[in-house]
Amino acid sequence: MKRNEVKEKEKTDKPSTRRRILGVTAFIAAAAAGTLFLLSAIGESSGDPDKTADDDPPTTRTMKAPGFGGKVMISRDKFEGNPKDYFRASRKGDEEDVGAFK
TM segments (predicted)? Predict the structure, then answer.
């Protein structure tokens, strides 16, 4: 074998120092990103340990009040419970008159 061929073979057998540094740096960056991701997920789920699902206020279904062009939101449950009174109040054309349905 010639001297040049031996040097060529040695170069291909061993990764360069730059590649090693690049590989280690990429590994450290990936590990740090993974750690931050896991810690942020744990932080979001921990919250208040004394709080239960029963502590949350009940959700109120709302809807756009008919006749007001979407400017007024009212309780859907109150509206469905007595739509006749809603339309009586809305005929006056004032948002305050339908306030009982909010």
Answer: 21-42
| 73: β partners | 64
31 Ramachandran zone, left/alpha/beta (phi>0; psi -120 to 50): alpha
Quote the distance between the C-alpha of residue 16 and its chain's center. Answer: 43
Which among 65, 90, 89 is positioned nearest to 75, based on CA atoms?
65
Per-residue pLDDT of the chain (102 residues; tens, 9 = 90+): 566 665 666 566 666 788 889 899 999 999 999 888 888 777 665 555 566 555 556 678 888 888 777 788 888 888 888 888 888 888 876 667 777 777
The set of residues, in sequence order, having a beta carbon less than 8 Å from that of 75 and lying 6+ positions away, is 60, 61, 62, 63, 101, 102
What is the spatial distance between Cα 32 and Cα 11, in angstroms, rounded to a whole number? 32
